[in-house]
């Protein structure tokens, strides 16, 4: 239990999130740890969060509490959760390939279609599970989908989750309108109807869009809306215009694109020229990222999409499904830890930069 | 940019909305990059320079709640002081990308359900906000829609002009009060001030607040109500709004604030039917050291004022003033009429002073008793907020009936189409005539300038304001790829586009329309 | 849904009856090995989903379920005493079914017929349901589910009243100290709701159970668990600084014993109190102090808010005329933690801004005039972005420098 965590867990390594930066590092750290109580000393991720730096503790606790409400093979779970001083320690399953964003970092031209199908299939199961609970995830993004050693895919980050059940009258809502500043990191993946903040609101179908965006990103190697000049406004403009991301393969390669390329990018063009995605994949993307709700598939329709026919055949036996994926994954590099030796949990917490203290003032009042 | 034009405002007019169409035009000249596009002809006037990038200068005051930013510890009220030039030469953080030349925009495939206007709109930034359509105009302020480019939140911006404030009685004081009070408040039923920008040179204040659909007054006045043959809001709908009003008011009162002007016109409704109390121009912040909530002065709307004011008493109890006007508001919502009406203000105050009113018979008994409690002539016997909350009608949600008073279609239209589209289009697809020059312009890149003292240079030929600390190589490769993908999104690539992309290294932002 | 279509032929009241039967099967522990136990579990799952769909209507929320169907369903649930049965068997059903039960339970509570909430009346007559839910915190498997249902109940003033009046309420003092982070924080959320949702109810409760409550509360503040300490301090400050609880605050602040407890948590005095009163029983590392600082910070934030809240005007005037309070604030101004300094500033400013400062107060200010001006000028100079703060600081400096020697 929480009290003997020092005996239970041993730190193996320090990990860096693909999206982390100096600033985030001040508030949280990630370590690879092993559980010594388990026979095979299984590996886990230890995420250390300094509560001192959190201004809104209750919001954070709500985010964490989502973990306990779900129990699904493809949803990230919280193995353990304990406190050392002011630092909250979250223990989660270790995904050796890191997130999909990590996967793309080491494979900048995208990953193969079969693997994408696997990842999508498992993520879809997770979203369907959430849908059953009337919950909209809203945080589906490449950085939140993790790939494990054994081919298991885990969907993480429930901080954007919102229930379709109204907190005001307890009824199931047809659509919701919530749009806050919090969503700004998620803009690349948000469905257009969320961003419009219109009278129609949005519903569970919006997660399908995000799923399609991730699939597209995995295939193309980068998000279609990344690095636009006007930043977010451009995303909005593109989405209003009805632009839908597509898969880049030889069928989509146009002369103009080739003309565009310079020495830096020629290898990418070559890569595109070489590959050809199946028509099922193309149609899958199309039915996911459609800007119009009517032509976008529902989660149930996606479940029976032809793109997943292989996964469906194997889905009866989870092992064979995973074996297949593990085989695919063999060609991809695992996420590399930083190799910094820290062995005890206490050290990790004491290594945190201490909070801002003034230099001691030698001042006395006269009363 | 001195104000040369003299206005024909009569300063002694009461605090009512005055519209001078001719003045709006004058103002256009005055401001050079006016805020009024209402009466604009199809194309913007030609007197504008083709490339309008105003000099950025220091002194541009920028305030935002989370990452706020002002260097000088000046009291805000200073800026409304009489001192006309406070020595600071400032100008708007404005960027007008709009070319004056008429170009028809490319229309989006018809399957997109957005309406577009043939009229060209000019894209204008103030800070990180892209400005849009005018939503409304008051005596001293104008409200426009805008879009926060950081998180794409749609907001409303209240633009106050100093010369207009001067012409409104207590105008400057009201503006100062409103800002001071709004800055402190944070409650779901109070309109939230997200950001606040002040432009000294143009003598304008920009208040960025929640974007709402319509006020309750407008809903009551709407054609929809007549069409549906409703005389007022159905009870369940009124109840929904009323409990939100009380929640907001309870919060205000606990913060020592008396609103003074609660009425349907000051209660805005968001798209998901949340009520927001707005307009704190006449609100009163009680002094921390005052012994009670006594006020000496109240400037609300006559029909919503309480008997003690109507009878001309010297002092009033602030909290019960608000309760009374809540009562009138509720009366108005459920019956569609006002409890006290008269032809002129003297007769009106006479009627109110007597405190005799008739509640229609078709109002259910619980609601009648609540109304009687709220509209009690004796302020000591009038309900308190706590009593209101404990009242039976308040606590028991009336069953939902099938009648429902919807938003007026004219207002709802803003939420069915995307009115900011035209401005976005203008930003992204400026006319080709101005092509090269225009292309180089970028909206202010640096969003978190600490104090507005952004020394943005003219982004002439080189627009490579590299902020990203990634390795160049990688970055270029990535952006190139996304350029490809972006282009491929739309399946058509104009050669013009490719040219641009090559030139600029960073990927081009244009997306051609479908078809 | 395939399940609901299977069951569609059955009448709506049957669901409740069926469910009741299945539950009786699994209630029989001896049957655990047998096949019909497993069958019952499966059937419960199907029926629960059918029930839930019946109550919520179609999955996409496109239409509301027909009122007649729902009222049939509900009357079935009430007549079969299903609410009680579901809660009793919460630990026996599967993880997923627990959540279905929560969804059904919470939906029932919100349901209004005419001017009545039938579920509320139902539970009021069977308050055992509430106590069973509270007990749920003992079982880690169902703790969070029970917490969700409890909080839904607490929204209703009548039900919150029942809980507050019962002895079971004091169980929360144990639950919030549980070592498991999530259960403890969930219990805290419920605990806080109970004490803050209905202001007049809570004020009344505290008034009547003042001693019992605050004696129990002392244990929380002395807890070995950091989260407990932090959270309980937070709730305490919320309660005593609540405007409806003015009299409690007065009593509390006069209660020297309890007040020292709170102030004992201030880092500056913690060491001296450590030995004297044994408040802090564990040897503490420096980082353990961080939590206290955080709490003191919260407390001060709230204290500041309280004093500036109009409902508490009399408390404020009393507070700011007391020299001890001023001394304390001035000492806090030079705290090590910037957060505490800052909060202390907001209380300190009231002393200075008071137009009718008692002589004792202005004497102290006068005696430290130079130091204060010096101190304030260099105080948090990095807070350039906070307009209001800088204005106030300037105002205070002006006020202090203009202080007249009243003796003259």
Automatic annotation (TrEMBL), chain A:
What protein name applies here? Protein kinase domain-containing protein
Record-annotated Protein kinase domain positions: 1-308
The entry sums up its family as follows: Belongs to the protein kinase superfamily. STE Ser/Thr protein kinase family. STE20 subfamily.
A Pfam family matched by this chain, by name? Pkinase
Q: Which lineage ranks, top first, belong to the organism behind this chain?
A: Eukaryota, Metazoa, Spiralia, Gnathifera, Rotifera
TM annotation in the entry: none
Q: Name one GO biological process term.
A: protein export from nucleus
The UniProt GO MF terms for this protein read: ATP binding; protein kinase activity; protein serine/threonine kinase activator activity
SUPFAM superfamilies membership: Protein kinase-like (PK-like)
Please, which domain of life does this record's source organism belong to? Eukaryota
Question: Known PANTHER family for this protein?
Answer: SERINE/THREONINE-PROTEIN KINASE FRAY2, SERINE_THREONINE-PROTEIN KINASE FRAY2
Give an example GO cellular component term for this record: serine/threonine protein kinase complex
From TrEMBL, chain B:
How is this protein annotated for GO cellular component?
Answer: cytoplasm
Domain spans labelled Protein kinase: 129-394
Bilayer-spanning residue ranges: none
Spell out the PROSITE patterns in the cross-references. Answer: PROTEIN_KINASE_ATP (PS00107), PROTEIN_KINASE_DOM (PS50011), PROTEIN_KINASE_ST (PS00108)
Ranges annotated as biased composition (Polar residues): 430-445, 453-467
Report the cofactors: Mg(2+); Mn(2+)
Family, similarity comment: Belongs to the protein kinase superfamily. CAMK Ser/Thr protein kinase family. LKB1 subfamily.
Q: What is this protein called?
A: non-specific serine/threonine protein kinase
* Top-level taxonomy: Eukaryota, Metazoa, Spiralia, Gnathifera, Rotifera
From TrEMBL, chain C:
Q: Which Pfam families does this entry report, sorted A to Z?
A: Mo25
For the biological process aspect of GO, one term held by this record is: intracellular signal transduction
Q: Which species is this UniProt entry from?
A: Rotaria magnacalcarata
Gene Ontology MF terms in the entry: protein serine/threonine kinase activator activity
PANTHER family in UniProt: CALCIUM-BINDING PROTEIN 39-RELATED, PROTEIN MO25
Annotated keywords = Coiled coil
User: Where does the chain cross the membrane?
Assistant: none
Q: Would the keyword Coiled coil be found if you checked this record's keyword annotation? A: yes
Q: Is Cell membrane found in the keyword set? A: no
Q: Which SUPFAM superfamilies match?
A: ARM repeat
Q: What is the top-level taxon of the source organism? A: Eukaryota
Q: Which residues form a coiled coil?
A: 316-343
Protein's name according to its UniProt entry? Mo25-like protein
Q: Which family does it belong to?
A: Belongs to the Mo25 family.
């Amino acid at each position: 239990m929480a009290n003997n965590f020092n005996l239970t867990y041993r730190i193996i390594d320090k990990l860096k999130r693909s999206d982390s930066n100096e600033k985030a590092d001040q508030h949280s750290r990630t370590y690879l740890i092993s559980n010594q109580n388990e026979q095979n000393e299984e590996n886990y991720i230890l995420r250390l969060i300094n509560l001192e730096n959190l201004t809104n503790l209750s919001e954070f606790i709500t985010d964490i509490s989502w973990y306990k409400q779900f129990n699904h093979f493809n949803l990230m779970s919280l193995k353990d959760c304990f406190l050392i001083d002011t630092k909250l320690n979250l223990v989660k399953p270790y995904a050796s390939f890191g997130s999909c964003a990590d996967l793309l970092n080491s494979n900048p031209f995208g990953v193969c279609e079969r693997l994408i199908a696997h990842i999508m299939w498992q993520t879809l199961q997770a979203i369907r599970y959430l849908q059953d609970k009337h919950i909209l995830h809203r945080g589906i993004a490449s950085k939140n989908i993790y790939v494990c050693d054994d081919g298991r895919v885990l969907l993480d980050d429930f901080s954007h989750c919102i229930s379709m059940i109204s907190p005001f009258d307890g009824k199931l809502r047809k659509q919701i309108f919530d749009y806050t500043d919090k969503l700004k990191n998620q803009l690349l993946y948000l469905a257009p109807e969320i961003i419009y903040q219109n009278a129609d609101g949005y519903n569970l179908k919006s997660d399908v869009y995000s799923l399609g965006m991730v699939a597209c990103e995995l295939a193309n190697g980068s998000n279609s809306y990344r690095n636009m000049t006007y930043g977010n406004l451009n995303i909005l403009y593109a989405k209003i215009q009805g632009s839908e991301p597509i898969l880049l393969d030889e069928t989509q390669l146009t002369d103009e694109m080739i003309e565009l390329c310079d020495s830096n990018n020629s290898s990418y063009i070559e890569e595109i020229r070489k590959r050809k995605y199946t028509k099922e994949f193309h149609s899958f993307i199309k039915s996911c990222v459609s800007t119009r709700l009517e032509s976008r598939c529902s989660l149930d329709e996606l479940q029976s999409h032809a793109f997943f026919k292989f996964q469906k055949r194997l889905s009866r036996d989870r092992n064979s499904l995973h074996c297949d994926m593990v085989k695919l994954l063999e060609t991809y590099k695992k996420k590399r830890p930083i190799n910094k030796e820290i062995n005890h949990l206490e050290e990790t917490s004491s290594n945190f930069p201490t909070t801002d203290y003034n230099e001691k003032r030698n001042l006395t009042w006269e009363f | 940019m001195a104000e040369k034009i003299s206005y024909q405002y009569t300063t002694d007019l009461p605090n009512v909305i005055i519209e001078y169409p001719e003045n709006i035009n004058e103002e256009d000249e005055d401001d050079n990059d006016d805020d009024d596009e209402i009466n604009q002809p199809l194309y913007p006037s030609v007197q504008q320079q083709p490339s309008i990038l105003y000099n950025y200068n220091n002194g541009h005051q920028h305030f935002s709640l989370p990452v706020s930013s002002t260097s000088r510890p000046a009291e805000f009220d200073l800026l409304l002081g009489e001192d006309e030039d406070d020595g600071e030469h400032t100008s708007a953080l404005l960027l007008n990308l709009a070319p004056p030349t008429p170009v028809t925009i490319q229309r989006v495939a018809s399957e997109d359900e957005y309406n577009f206007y043939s009229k060209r709109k000019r894209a204008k930034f103030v800070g990180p906000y892209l400005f849009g359509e005018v939503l409304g105009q008051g005596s001293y302020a104008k409200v426009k829609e805008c879009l926060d480019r950081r998180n794409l939140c749609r907001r409303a911006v209240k633009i106050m002009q100093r010369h207009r404030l001067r012409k409104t009685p207590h105008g400057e004081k009201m503006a100062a009060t409103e800002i001071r009070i709004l800055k402190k408040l944070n409650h779901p039923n109070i309109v939230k001030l997200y950001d606040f920008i002040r432009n000294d040179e143009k003598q304008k204040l920009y208040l960025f607040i929640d974007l709402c659909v319509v006020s309750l007054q407008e809903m009551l006045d709407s054609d929809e109500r007549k069409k549906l043959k409703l005389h007022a809001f159905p009870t369940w709908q009124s109840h929904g709004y009323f409990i939100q009003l009380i929640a907001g008011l309870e919060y205000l009162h606990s913060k020592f604030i008396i609103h003074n002007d609660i009425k349907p016109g000051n209660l805005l409704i968001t798209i998901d039917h949340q009520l927001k109390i707005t307009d704190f121009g006449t609100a009163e912040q009680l002094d921390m050291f005052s012994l009670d909530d006594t006020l000496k002065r109240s400037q609300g709307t006559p029909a919503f004022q309480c008997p003690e004011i109507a009878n001309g008493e010297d002092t009033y109890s602030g909290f019960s003033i608000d309760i009374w006007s809540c009562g009138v508001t509720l009366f108005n919502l459920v019956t569609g009429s006002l409890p006290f009406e008269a032809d002129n203000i003297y007769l009106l105050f006479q009627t109110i002073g007597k405190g005799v009113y008739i509640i229609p018979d078709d109002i259910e008994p619980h609601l009648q008793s609540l109304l009687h409690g709220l509209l009690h002539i004796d302020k000591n016997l009038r309900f308190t907020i706590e009593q209101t909350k404990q009242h039976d009608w308040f606590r028991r949600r009336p069953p939902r009936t099938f009648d429902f008073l919807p938003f007026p279609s004219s207002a709802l239209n803003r939420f069915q189409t995307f009115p900011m589209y035209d401005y976005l289009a203008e930003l992204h697809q400026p006319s080709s005539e101005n092509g090269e020059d225009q292309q180089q312009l970028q909206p202010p890149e640096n969003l978190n300038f600490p104090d507005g003292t952004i020394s943005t240079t003219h982004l002439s030929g080189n627009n490579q304001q590299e902020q990203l600390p990634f390795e160049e190589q990688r970055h270029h490769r990535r952006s190139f790829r996304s350029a490809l993908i972006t282009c491929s999104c739309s399946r058509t690539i104009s050669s013009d586009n490719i040219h641009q992309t090559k030139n600029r290294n960073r990927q081009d932002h244009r997306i051609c329309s479908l078809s | 849904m395939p399940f609901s279509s299977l069951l569609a032929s059955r009448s709506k009241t049957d669901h409740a009856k069926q469910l009741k039967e299945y539950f009786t099967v699994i209630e029989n522990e001896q049957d655990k090995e047998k096949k019909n136990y497993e069958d019952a579990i499966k059937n419960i799952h199907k029926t629960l989903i059918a029930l839930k769909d019946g109550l919520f209507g179609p999955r996409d929320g496109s239409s509301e379920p027909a009122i007649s169907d729902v009222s049939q369903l509900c009357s079935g649930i009430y007549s079969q005493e299903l609410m009680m049965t579901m809660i009793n068997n919460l630990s026996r059903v599967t993880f997923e079914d627990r959540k279905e039960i929560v969804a059904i339970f919470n939906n029932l509570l919100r349901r209004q017929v005419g001017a009545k909430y039938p579920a509320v009346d139902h539970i009021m007559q069977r308050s055992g349901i509430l106590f069973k839910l509270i007990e749920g915190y003992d079982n880690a498997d169902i703790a969070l589910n029970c917490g969700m249902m409890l909080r839904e109940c607490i929204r209703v003033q009548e039900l919150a009243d029942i809980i507050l009046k019962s002895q079971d309420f004091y169980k929360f003092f144990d639950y919030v100290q549980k070592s498991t982070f999530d259960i403890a924080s969930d219990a805290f959320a419920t605990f806080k709701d109970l004490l803050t949702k209905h202001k007049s109810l809570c004020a009344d409760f505290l008034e009547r159970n003042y001693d019992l409550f605050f004696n129990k509360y002392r244990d929380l503040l002395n807890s070995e668990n950091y989260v407990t300490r932090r959270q309980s301090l937070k709730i305490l400050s919320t309660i005593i600084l609540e405007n409806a609880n003015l009299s409690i605050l007065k009593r509390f602040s006069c209660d020297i014993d309890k007040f020292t407890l709170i102030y004992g948590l201030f880092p500056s005095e913690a060491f001296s109190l450590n030995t004297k009163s044994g408040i802090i029983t564990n040897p503490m590392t420096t980082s353990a102090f961080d939590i206290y600082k955080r709490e003191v910070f919260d407390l001060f934030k709230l204290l500041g808010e309280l004093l500036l809240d109009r409902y508490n005007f009399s408390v404020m005037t009393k507070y700011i005329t007391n020299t001890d309070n001023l001394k304390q604030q001035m000492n806090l101004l030079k705290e090590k933690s910037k957060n505490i300094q800052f909060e202390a500033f907001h209380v300190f400013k009231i002393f200075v801004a008071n137009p009718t400062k008692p002589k004792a107060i202005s004497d102290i200010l006068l005696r430290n005039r130079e130091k204060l001006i010096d101190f304030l000028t260099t105080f948090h100079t990095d807070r350039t972005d906070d307009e209001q703060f800088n204005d106030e600081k300037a105002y205070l400096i002006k006020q202090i420098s203009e202080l007249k020697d009243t003796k003259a």
